[in-house]
Each structure stands twice: as C-alpha cells, then as structure tokens.
Specification:
This protein has 14 helices and 17 strands. The chain has 407 residues and is an alpha+beta fold.
C-alpha cells in the first residue's frame, strides 16, 4: 500500500513559490526591526509543559497544546507561543543582561485547533519584545514598530485600526465588584470572545447571576500612550474597553491591530505588557512588553489588498549544453559567471532548444543561452532575454558585465 501524499491537517508544505512569499514576509519583518535596533534570538520548539500551565491560560494548555511524555518520563510541549520561552531565557541570565533588551524572533509555533481561514495548527510568528523598561515610552515604541511593519508592507492608515485597553484597569474594575474569582475569569474570557458571540449580554448575565454593566472609562496610562502615538503621527488608534486578549500573563496595557476590510475583518496581531512572567522562573521580575504577528493572517491581509509583490527572477542565466561533449565547458562557464555574482543554472538534459527555453522560463530565468560547438570554439554565445525576446551576441568574458548592466 502506498502512503498518502496528504500532509497533516492544519499544516503546510512550502513549495518554492510559497516559500518566496514566506521569505519576503520574513525579510520585511527583519528590515523594520533592525531599523529600531532589535536583535534576533531563537530557541528549541520543545519546552517543559509546566511553563504553559503556569501562565498561558486554560484554553491554550488544555485544548490547544501538543503535549507528550518523552522517554525519560518528562511532560514536553511543542511551543504554542514564544513569550514563555523568551521569559525563561531572560530569567536564566537576567543578572548578566544590559537592559533594556530589544529582541525579536521568528519561531514556528503549534496549536491543536480547528483549521480555518487565518488560523492553522502551525504557523510562523514574529515575536518582538522589550525587557527592562516599565514606561509608556516602551509601549509607544512597540506599537510604533507594529504600525511601521504594516506601513512597510504597503497598507494605509484606513486599512487597519489599532485598539488599546489596559488589564490593570480591567482588574481594578472587577475587584470593585462582588464577583467571585471564577466569575471574573469567565467574564474576561467572554469579553475576549465578544465579537464572536451573538448573545453577549445574555451570557454576561448568566455568568454574573444578575444584570451586569461593564462600561469603564479610559485610564491615565492608556491615554498617555494614545497621546504619544498621536505625536508620532499614528492616529488610526482607539480605546476599546472590551478588548482583553486571551493570555493570563498580561498585566498592563494590551493592544490588537484589526484589518478594516469586510473581506478580512479580524485581528491581525496583538500584544501587551507582562511584567511578572519572569517571576515564575526566579524571584526577580523583569518588566516586559511584546507582541506577536503570524504569517498566516498577515498573508491574508496582503492578499486582501493585493500587496504581495511580483518576485524578481531567481535565476540570471540559464545555460543549456546541446551535447554531452559540451557539458564540462558549460559548467566551467557557469562557475566563472557565479564567481562574478550571477545566479546560473546548467541544463545538461540534451533536450531540443525550444524545450530548453520553455524550461528556462518556468525557472524564472532572465536570460537563456545554448552552448554548442560554435560557442565553445569562438568563446561567444547568443544571450536571449526571455521577456523581451531580444538577443545579444557576447564574448564569454563580457556576459557578467552585460547582465548586471541590464538587470
């Protein structure tokens, strides 16, 4: 019996055309982060399961985490998110660090959930974090970076909105009520799903056991961030008292960015302050704020607004040997061109020229040349531009200069 060629449900294969899109997303992320002086880090996707049980939230741990027991009897998880990992890394060497830390990573993360538009069982996620700075200026910088990333991808202010809230304000509000801890927890989880349920008021009443009014005013800290962002020219931003974000470790300002298109009206990414997360690893708490942005939802946004670029040719010159006697000198020419910085494919299949040209086109090459007896003896060839169909006869030693000049 033959094995199925289907991949595991909710994960992806990246063929070269798909990987070019992923690489473009990664490169753009990195370009923006490096402008702000952020350094890249990484870690294994395997973590002890207990770090998620401590702070990530019941839904993540009980329903969405891939967890198994290894051969040593240890409970291990494939990371569903990166924040506990980076908090562990900082806690491990926090006395050696020079703060504030400005770090980013692009990890592969895994969650067992129902695959749907914008949400799979694995994805790549940009994580951006600042450690060691408890200040509204840190919040402002992180949100400015998030804004800058979307602008760099080509979005305009009208195509997304940044929503802010504050978990400190939320917690203070609930502490002023007579709700039990269990009721508070359920209300916060309901608020997190407010836009996904039709009977929000009814569910809220069921949890609270009575009519329950939730209408807090904006707090001073959140207003300060709004003002600072406005001074930076970022005005597509608003206070949303119903936005809570799902992770239990948030304990300050939180934010999410939403696509405003009806075709993709959902949260694109978000983050917030989590000052106490390193405390689960050591007695010292390091203030921190960060956000995550997934490649799946981001690609949906870019496709919605037709912002994915037409990618440059991946090959400069496609050299085809017309006979096996010419393969070796063709490979030598290709080596010389590569030393000059060109990207060159050598085709030694011996097919007809028409078929070779079609193959060069499918490989995205800009130029094509066939190498036969005349080319070898004269050290000249006819270089064909595959888009314009124009041809140019060149000496071997002039090929590199010509291609670079006409790139």
């Amino acid at each position: 019996m033959k094995l199925s060629t289907d991949n595991y449900k909710g994960v992806r294969d990246f063929y070269p055309s798909d990987y070019r899109v992923l690489e473009y997303i990664f490169d753009t992320w990195k370009k923006v982060l490096k402008k702000y002086g952020y350094e890249q880090y990484d870690a294994s996707p395997l973590e002890y399961a207990e770090i998620y049980k401590q702070k990530s939230g019941e839904e993540i741990v009980n329903e969405q985490t891939y967890t198994f027991t290894d051969k040593g009897g240890r409970e291990i998880s494939l990371r569903p998110e990166m924040t506990p990992t980076v908090a562990r890394m900082v806690a491990k060497k926090h006395r050696e660090m020079s703060y504030p830390l400005r770090w980013f990573s692009i990890p592969n993360v895994f969650r067992y959930e129902r695959p749907q538009k914008g949400r799979l069982r694995e994805h790549w996620q940009l994580n951006v974090d600042m450690f060691g700075m408890d200040s509204v200026y840190a919040e402002t910088e992180l949100i400015q970076i998030a804004y800058d990333i979307l602008i760099t991808f080509g979005l305009t202010d009208s195509q997304f909105v940044i929503k802010l809230n504050n978990r400190k304000m939320l917690n203070a509000f609930f502490d002023s009520t007579s709700l039990s801890d269990d009721q508070k927890h359920k209300v916060i989880k309901l608020l997190d799903r407010k836009n996904k349920v039709d009977n929000f008021d009814e569910l809220l009443k069921d949890i609270a056991g009575r009519d329950f009014v939730y209408n807090p005013e904006i707090d001073e800290e959140t207003q300060a961030v709004l003002d600072l962002l406005s001074k930076r020219g970022i005005t597509n931003i608003e206070f949303d008292p119903y936005m809570v974000r799902g992770f239990d470790y948030y304990n300050g300002l939180i934010f999410e960015i939403f696509d405003t298109s009806p075709a993709n009206n959902r949260s694109v990414f978000g983050g917030g302050r989590y000052n106490n997360l390193t405390h689960i690893f050591s007695d010292d708490s390091v203030p921190a704020i960060g956000f995550g942005m997934g490649d799946v939802t981001l690609r949906d946004v870019l496709e919605t607004y037709d912002l994915l670029p037409t990618f440059d040719s991946t090959v400069d010159v496609y050299l085809a040997s017309l006979h096996e006697n010419f393969i070796e000198p063709t490979m030598t020419l290709a080596d010389d061109l590569r030393k000059e910085g060109l990207k060159v494919i050598v085709d030694f299949s011996g097919r007809k020229v028409g078929d070779l040209i079609k193959k060069a086109v499918t490989k995205g090459s800009r130029y094509f040349a066939a190498i036969g007896d005349d080319e070898i003896h004269t050290s000249k060839l006819i270089l064909k531009h595959l888009s314009t169909k124009k041809e140019k006869k060149l000496k071997f030693k002039h090929i590199s200069t010509f291609v670079k000049k006409n790139s």
